[in-house]
Design a protein that fits this description.
The chain is α/β, with parallel strands linked by helices and about 180 residues long. The strands form three sheets. An eight-stranded mixed beta sheet has the order 6-3-2-1-7-10-11-12, sandwiched between helices. A two-stranded antiparallel ribbon has the order 4-5. The protein has one domain (about 1-180): NagB/RpiA/CoA transferase-like (Rossmann fold), CATH 3.40.50. The chain has helices spanning about 1-15, 20-35, 40, 60-65, 135-145; strands at about 45-50, 70-80, 80-85, 95, 100-105, 110, 115-120, 120-125, 130, 150, 175, 180. About 35% of the residues are buried. A hairpin with a 2-residue loop joins strand 2 and strand 3. The protein has five helices and twelve strands. InterPro entries: FTHF_cligase, FTHF_cligase-like_sf, NagB/RpiA_transferase-like. Keywords: ATP-binding, Ligase, Magnesium, Metal-binding, Nucleotide-binding. One of its GO terms (molecular function) is metal ion binding.
Length: about 180
């Protein structure tokens, strides 16, 4: 746990150290990579997080999905769980859990057949993920094993090795501004 705390501290500092312009540039590059994946092309529905605080900006992926005629949903934290709301307009988002943008209204969806765009603090090339410590994604994915898992991250979030736990669910693909790492 101590090691994860250190990693979070290190990556949050790195995120802060980059300019808005850099974050936006790289986020666009990541969106371009994500939208060329077969997993994206095959998906009719996308579960995406709403970004916050120099995370990979997901707006570009969401806009592309809308343009491509896909449905999009974003999570809202309810107790220990994430509930996904269909997103048809960014105006549905308001500050929620820890100041993270969440849907304030809309239709709640239960999609099994979808591609998820996952956030994370740090990753390694074995596709292990360190999240924010709430376990929301692991709990959700355990209940929805069919959902395709694509994490987005900046290259500086890729570490040689990150600590893992048996309950961790790895993304199948991690997309950065430089590369796509596929689960072996």
């Amino acid at each position: 746990m101590e090691e994860k705390k250190q990693i979070r501290k290190q990556i949050f500092a790195a995120r802060k150290a980059h300019t808005d312009a850099q974050i936006e540039d790289w986020s666009r590059m990541i969106a371009d990579r994500v939208t060329t994946l077969p997993e994206y092309k095959d998906a009719k529905r996308i579960l995406a997080y709403a970004d916050y605080n120099h995370e990979v900006m997901t707006g570009f992926i969401i806009e592309a999905a809308w343009r491509d005629g896909k449905e999009v949903a974003v999570p809202k934290v309810v107790g220990q769980d994430m509930v996904f709301y269909k997103l048809t307009d960014f105006a549905q988002l308001e500050k929620g859990y820890f100041g993270i943008p969440e849907p304030a209204r809309g239709e709640i969806v239960q999609w099994e057949d979808a591609m998820m765009v996952m956030p994370g603090v740090a990753f390694d090339k074995e596709n292990h993920r360190v999240g924010y410590g709430g376990g929301f994604y692991d709990r959700f994915l355990e209940k929805h094993p069919q959902v395709r898992r694509v994490a987005v991250a900046f290259e500086f979030q890729m570490l040689p090795e990150v600590p893992t736990e048996p309950t961790d669910i790895s993304p199948e693909i991690i997309v950065t501004e430089k590369s796509a790492y596929h689960l072996k």
